[in-house]
Write a structure and sequence with these properties.
Distance between the termini: 27 Å
Radius of gyration: 16 Å
Shape: elongated
Strand order of the largest sheet: 1-2-3
Largest sheet: 3 strands, antiparallel
Strand content: 5-15%
């Protein structure tokens, strides 16, 4: 995962929105093998996945990526579930999550 695009998500922090390790971000361990970052200004910790489509997904990134690619190629929810060996309802949840994230990014870019 690329950490240079990470920033402190705390709006009250003086380094809110300033990207990269130059913004006083340091690694602070991991939670379920997902890196956590510490802002040395506000002492806040957060997941390196925060603000991404991966945030809150409790699966391997590679499985999530394969599932999203399969859906983008036109595979069904059930078919995608069989490919990555997960339940179709989980695939549906991932699709909803990815769709909301894509909508937020598109809205941000259009504004």
């Amino acid at each position: 995962m690329e950490f240079t695009t990470s920033y402190c998500p705390n709006p009250q922090c003086t380094h809110y929105g300033k990207r990269g390790f130059g913004a006083h971000l340091v690694r602070r361990g991991a939670d379920r093998d997902i890196p956590r970052l510490l802002c040395t200004r506000c002492e806040g910790t957060f997941s390196a996945r925060q603000g991404t489509a991966y945030f809150g997904v409790r699966a391997e990134e590679s499985n999530y990526i394969i599932a999203m690619r399969a859906l983008a190629e036109g595979n069904s929810l059930r078919g995608t579930g069989r490919i990555v060996e997960i339940d179709k309802d989980t695939v549906c949840d991932w699709l909803d999550r990815a769709g909301r994230h894509c909508r937020a990014v598109t809205t941000y870019l259009f504004d």
